[in-house]
Specification:
Blueprint lengths: L1 H15 L5 H41 L5 H35 L3 H11 L8 H9 L4
Helix pairs in contact: 2-3, 4-5
Length: about 140
C-alpha cells in the first residue's frame, strides 16, 4: 500500500514538475555554445602566455649560468598567468550558470533548488539543469 502511494505521489510530482520548453532548451544550448566559444578563445590566449613563460623559465634553468633573479621573476609571472587562467575559468562558469538561470521560470528554479538541497546532489548548477530538465551542451 505504501509503495503504491509512493508511486502515485512520484507520478503526480513528475506531472506537475515544470519542464523546459523547446525554446528554453534551444536558448540554453545557444548561450552555452556562445559562451564556450568566447571562453575557448580566451583560454587559448592565456595558454599561449603560460607556455611562453614556462619556456623562458626552462631556458634560464637549462642555461650554463642560470640567473636566480630571472628565475624568480619568471616563476612569479608563471604563477600569475596560471592564476589568470583559473580566474577566467571560474568567471566563465559563473557567467554561464547566471545566463542559464535567467532563462528559467520561478517554478523551474524551485525544482532545481529542491534537487540541489537533496543529500549528495550535484553542486554544479549547469549540470543539474541538464539532469533535471534533460538538456545537454
Amino acid at each position: 500500500m505504501k509503495f503504491a502511494l509512493m508511486l502515485m505521489t512520484a507520478g503526480l510530482w513528475a506531472q506537475n514538475t515544470p519542464s523546459l520548453t523547446d525554446s528554453q532548451k534551444q536558448a540554453i544550448q545557444q548561450k552555452i555554445r556562445a559562451l564556450e566559444s568566447d571562453n575557448k578563445v580566451q583560454a587559448e590566449k592565456l595558454s599561449v602566455k603560460v607556455a611562453a613563460i614556462a619556456k623562458d623559465l626552462d631556458r634560464n634553468l637549462l642555461s650554463a649560468t642560470p640567473d636566480e633573479k630571472v628565475s624568480q621573476k619568471l616563476s612569479a609571472d608563471f604563477a600569475a598567468a596560471v592564476d589568470d587562467m583559473v580566474n577566467a575559468a571560474v568567471e566563465a562558469k559563473l557567467t554561464m550558470v547566471g545566463e542559464i538561470v535567467k532563462l528559467l521560470t520561478p517554478e523551474q528554479k524551485a525544482v532545481l533548488l529542491a534537487d540541489l538541497e537533496k543529500p549528495g546532489a550535484n553542486p554544479d548548477l549547469a549540470e543539474l539543469v541538464g539532469t533535471v530538465f534533460g538538456t545537454s551542451k
